[in-house]
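Researcher: Please predict.
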Amino acid sequence: MGFTIEDMLTVGREKYNMEIIAGQNGWANSISWLHVVEDTTLIQNFWGREMAVTTGLGFATEEKQLQLVADLISHHAAGLIINTGKYIPVVPKQVMEICDENDFPLLTVPWEVHLADLMKDFSIRVFLQDGEDQKISTAMMQAIIEPEKQENYRDALKPYFDVDGSFQTVLITTDGLDAMDTVERRKLSNQMQVYLEGISHNGNFFYYDSAFVLVMNDIEDEVRKSIVEGMVRRAKMRTSKEIPFYVGVGTQVIDISNLYLSFQRAESAMKRAMKTKQAVMRFDEMGVYRLLYSVTDKQLLEEMGEEPLKPLLDYDKKHNSNLVDTLEMYLFYDGSIQKVAAAMFTHRNTVIYRVNKIKEMLGTDLSSPKERMKYQVAYYIRKM
């Protein structure tokens, strides 16, 4: 997950007397680069995950510091380092409160620290870690694409992950993601990684096959759940409300060679989330749709969704009626005329007439589970 705030603190505490004074929940934010910021002009060009560093020269007042933090949060920065002393002796309490509310890491180094040395040191570390992350992402994609060729990924991932341990894949997309150009997608990728707080080196994040992919290794159930839910919450809070995110959570699997299964199931869950307009869909909670979305023969699904209902579909089209909807309600309410009538705001005698018509056209009285099954499956398929 790149060079993170946690990594920076591990080095910086002893080397630069660095402290984190607010936004501690953002400890896993990854850093794309470091920029010295003495006014807010540069921030307008941030892509996301940038680490801002300031002496406070242009932010001597509390009001200006509040505006600085607000701008950095709105532009998806990874965090802020303040060189305290000359211009900002003490960080105001309200500034720290806003950072805490937004899980935005606020760090300090004393005035005696030479920022040029700090910037050079951490920029090199970010660059080197980015190279390692690219190798990891390539190996992860190999595990998804060609799981049987373990020689292409297992040894490459062993230094970074417990390849014999548990893995779970999460897929994230939004409307039009695959149509975005590389720059737009890169910016969105950086933003998404800022939202993924709570995970650092036991995860990997990359773009593949029209979705952002998060792979988590050896993480407890509750932590995995909080990472996903937290990401959705922060995305809604920090981005335009017009941009919907759809998240599909795959099954947890054991051993890196089974990562492809978790990926395929996360993809099914993501598609279901998009269909139902739900922010998060977990494959393990999809019921019968787990089976239907796992069918690769799309022609078969189309046939099973259309053929049983064809007489009703043709009749409805010709007579502008709604026998297809009536049958769906009849099956859903287990044959209760009264409940169907209430649900469709229709007189019970009309429902009785329609149901009898349906039975006649289909050549069945729909009395047994076996007779009803193919029609129920057809309706499930039509909702995919």
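Model: The longest helix spans residues 115-145.
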